[in-house]
Sequence to fold (351 residues):
Amino acid sequence: MNSNFIKVLNQQAASYTPIWLMRQAGRYLPEYRKVREKAGSFLNLCKNPQLATEVTLQPIKRFALDASIMFSDILVIPEAMGMHLYFNEGEGPKFSHPIKSTLDIDNLKVIEPEIDLAYVMQTIRNLKQELPRDIPLIGFSGSPWTLACYMIEGGSSKNYEQIKSWVYQHPQQLHILLEKISIAVADYLVAQIKAGVDTIMLFDSWGGVLTETAFQQFSHQYLSKVIERVKMSTPETNTPIIVFTKGGGVWLETLDKLDCNALGIDWTIDIGKARQQTNKILQGNLDPVILSVAKPKEIYSITKSIIESYKIANDGDLNGHIFNLGHGILPSANPDNVACLIDTVHELSKR
Fold:
């Protein structure tokens, strides 16, 4: 595959810095909103391979992006494990019966991804048929810690009091849950690789809410276990792995120890400083709000500063960087700003 994105992940020279955007298929696109309405609900959209394929392809058709990420949601795993997932408009995901006891953990199902998440595998197979040959497909999962947050909190949270009570009062029970989730996550990612994705990404969206010690015990340890199980199960593929811990810029030296190819970073750390703390490929790190509020000349200036900071820290070499946002694109993002960003990255980073 002649892809700058794959070249960078494999530590090869690229002709320009590749760019893709987290949540690039989403509500900021009018064509997405039409399909979402047709589906009837977000979960229906995730579970319909034909419609999930359609929305995955929308940003690829509209913009000069260098990679595609399959349309799905990280919470399909706990749902497949037996938890009832639903979405209230404007409130985000909810579980009707959050985990409250070891009995709830015992009752979680051991998943068979090809059966329990067959709709995701079909979406992947569809996309590999329909994507342009030079556009790689990214598969993904939430990290064990992040999934556990949702499963115990019952949804999004401001302070994570429920799961942190497990961290401090019931750590052994939490480790049992995280172990169980880790196996499900790894097996799910292996199934995605076998279905045809070109790379996989682990979203540790809530790793940054932990103390450094707790992060190592309850997040980093299980990221490592997932990666190890995936690599042992797919030794012949050598599929690149990206890990993104939101708020993890303070722990780059710890994250550097993971057996992955790339680390995603958010906007709270300068990419030049990040480059000095790890030898991994770096992915990031524009503040997503900029695409909602800035004008093209501001987007150009801020994008240039990120690229220049990376270049200076990397001894004048732009290789080893995948441009992305520091988190998912916002529903309020202006599609014209997205196009401006992509063109700017390509223009400023041509070798």
